[in-house]
Design brief:
Number of strands: 2
Structural class: mainly alpha
Helix content: over 70%
Order of helices and strands: HHHHEEHHHHHHH
Largest sheet: 2 strands, antiparallel
Length: 291
């Protein structure tokens, strides 16, 4: 085995897995609380990237200002989707498949609109320091390091918020028993908006680093949201720790497959591992049958 390649792929897997972990937490907190398969999360992710790119290119703002605008845009889009299409559909029908169809429709329509407005061309986000660190045989960029740190700080912040604050405990109450939570005065509507705000903020934040490493495209969010969804189920629905571990595992598996086959097969192999794991442990690594 080529040890230098192993070391590089391992570090790259941790960087990628950190991104997946944060996105899994962002998707998981929404899904486990609302039971909405929020496929339009991909649009929230993409809009955050485009908002940052357009802010930087139009107004010439520093990259960190553009990134903040991008996160704010993601929050607004996420809240708008929940307060608009999802709420309207939920009022008219209790069937969850209708909300799923609404999510699919919003995602497809939003992606088409972005492509109509900005075409399918790549739009990079520039201005971030382009430093590269070399440690032995491992090379990593400043963007990678910062994205990894921000991802885990975001996960830690969500974990602390859920366990140390009244609003976090309200989310847990609604997730566990929405009817009982409403009976004691907790507003399910406000909790839903809160989890959409949290999840959208993390999605928008991670979108900035994906764009810094590549470029914004109309369909960029779908792949990441599908991986986040798989990570949530791998780790266990309702478990922040599980979502984070699941995302990290998928990132490592994706990159480490490069030791034996082309990295092009990495995502497919990671999904295959998830399927096998769920057959063995249907409720995920940290999930419980009661969840």
């Amino acid at each position: 085995m080529n040890m230098e390649l192993l070391e590089q792929l391992l570090v790259s897997g941790i960087v990628l897995g950190s991104l997946y972990a944060a996105l899994a937490v962002s998707f998981g907190i929404i899904y486990s609380t609302t039971r909405v398969f929020h496929l339009a999360h991909a649009l929230v992710f993409t809009c955050g990237a485009y908002a940052a790119v357009l802010t930087a290119s139009t107004f010439g703002t520093p990259v960190w200002v553009a990134m903040i605008v991008g996160v704010a845009a993601s929050i607004l889009i996420g809240l708008g989707i929940q307060a608009g299409p999802y709420t309207i559909v939920q009022r008219r029908s209790k069937d969850p498949i209708n909300v799923f169809i609404a999510a699919l429709a919003v995602g497809i329509a939003g992606t088409a609109l972005l492509e109509l407005l900005f075409t399918a061309s790549n739009r990079p986000l520039t201005g971030f320091p382009e430093h590269t660190f070399v440690v032995g045989s491992v090379t990593v960029t400043l963007v990678d390091v910062v994205s990894m740190v921000v991802a885990w700080l975001s996960i830690l912040a969500v974990g602390l918020f859920m366990t140390r604050t009244n609003r976090g405990r309200a989310i847990t109450a609604v997730r566990t028993n929405a009817g009982m939570a409403e009976a004691v005065g907790i507003s399910k509507k406000r909790v839903y908006l809160l989890v959409f705000a949290i999840g959208s903020a993390i999605a928008g934040l991670m979108a900035q680093f994906v764009t810094l490493n590549g470029a914004a495209t109309p369909s960029m969010g779908l792949r990441y949201v599908l991986i986040a969804f798989m990570a949530v189920f791998l780790g266990g629905i309702g478990s922040i720790k599980g979502a984070a571990v699941g995302g990290l595992a998928l990132g490592l598996i994706t990159m480490l497959t490069g030791l034996w086959v082309s990295l092009d097969y990495g995502t497919a192999i990671a999904f295959g591992v998830v399927i096998v794991m769920l057959i063995i442990k249907p409720h995920g690594l940290f999930g419980r049958a009661a969840v």
